[in-house]
Amino acid sequence: MSNLLAAVFKDQTTIDVFAQDIFYGVAVAALFLAAVAIAFVDAGGVRRKNLVDTWVQKLLAMLIAGGAMMLIGYGIWEWQFNQAFGVPDPLGEALKGWWLGGDNYRALAQNIDPKLVPGADVLQIFGAFFFTWAAVFGALIHSAGLERVKASATYILAAVGGGIVMPFVAYLTWGSAGPLTNAGLHDFLGVYTLYILVGVWTLIMAWRAGPRRGSPVPHNLSWTAAGVGIFLFALPLAIVGCGYFIPGSGYFGISMADSSIGIVVTNVFVSYFAGALGGAILAYRTRNVAMALLGPVAGYISCASSFDVFHPWETFIVAFFGPLAVYLGILFMRRIRVDEGKVVALTLFGGVYGVIVSGFVAWHTKVGGYFGITEGKYAFQNSEVTPWMQLLGVVIVLAIAAITGLVLVFLIEKSIGLRVKAPQEDAGLDVAYWDLPTHDDPEFAELVKSRAVAPRPEGEPEPVI
């Protein structure tokens, strides 16, 4: 009854608002599907004895990272806009309004004064967008420790990354009023926040965990191929959510760059095409099938920071060489003998290549500020993209990622431990965590003995798993 008696602000319930709700709602669902696609990719690349646990850890890492982002991280990101509008105690007010139990989540959008929170319904949905964005982070963090890292270690990294480190980097580099973005840094998809950060963390995690025991023969690469396909299908719908859809005015990238949805979607598919060509050439020349599968993803990551400002022909050129940057990353990982074959190469090497090149291609593009601010430090489009600011962003994010990643991983190593014990790894995590042995594994008899699991009586039906 109290909601019925509350004031209703019509500006929060217009058709334009509902159109934006649907727009961002589709992006949220698509981005979560992209995170699930990563689970398919990894499920195809692990051994059968770790298959069930791979799915369990992956989904929980996704949801823990997303939940941490919703709990506090979204408020950290909103900090920049309070600064732009001169709100006293901007961080405190952002957290007060946008943590999971904050003022703006304890009221219906139509009951919130638009003078205080314009577009409240859209901002509430955008919090869910951040949830799914962090879920991708959690999925990729888990990928670094496949078949050997403790579940508890994965979950701690997902929670701290999703709830604190990722939103702080987003505050700096993703938006339009953050310190670096407002000074001219441009990043449409959040390559600094998601890919470069996760690339450094996964490198540290895989290095400290060490290589997998035994021969990591993939379970089923068809699942990996299916995962790549699902990922590429979901991305265009998710990517358009990285901007402002303003009915009657147009579409603007998250950094306030002029753009259009048509150009963004076209660029996404051009990056797939060009990346596939570059990846195919490398795949056939090196006889490495992984490059054929990863080529389109490499093309996408290399252009992700500038889908909103590239012309399609520029996208083609940048994306074509994206797989080469990723392949150099693969060779680097082999050289230093770190057991991580795809995430670091794609995210760190592909991401750094992309943001630096975009600084040259998109040089002088107007960014920064916010709608309606006409003068001062946060005036609409007050800055220009430069290669120097893109490079500065790389240096700052690499430093933040390296320091936080090393501290967290070493703390985990010295407390609960990072890696499962050798007998558990040999047995497989399906056995170690869930008592779900793989019966067709030739090591099964030895695993049963090591776990002291009594053999099933003859004639007793097997459990349904």
UniProtKB/TrEMBL annotation:
It is a multi-pass membrane protein. It comes from the Bacteria. Its main location: membrane. The keyword Transmembrane applies. Residues 23-433 form the Ammonium transporter AmtB-like domain. GO terms for cellular component: plasma membrane. It holds the Pfam family Ammonium_transp. The chain crosses the membrane at residues 22-43, 55-77, 122-141, 153-174, 189-209, 221-246, 261-282, 289-307, 313-331, 343-363, 388-412. Keywords: Membrane, Transmembrane, Transmembrane helix. It comes from Capillimicrobium parvum. The lineage of its organism: Bacteria, Bacillati, Actinomycetota, Thermoleophilia, Solirubrobacterales. GO terms for molecular function: ammonium channel activity. It is found in: Membrane. This is Ammonium transporter AmtB-like domain-containing protein. GO terms for biological process: ammonium homeostasis.
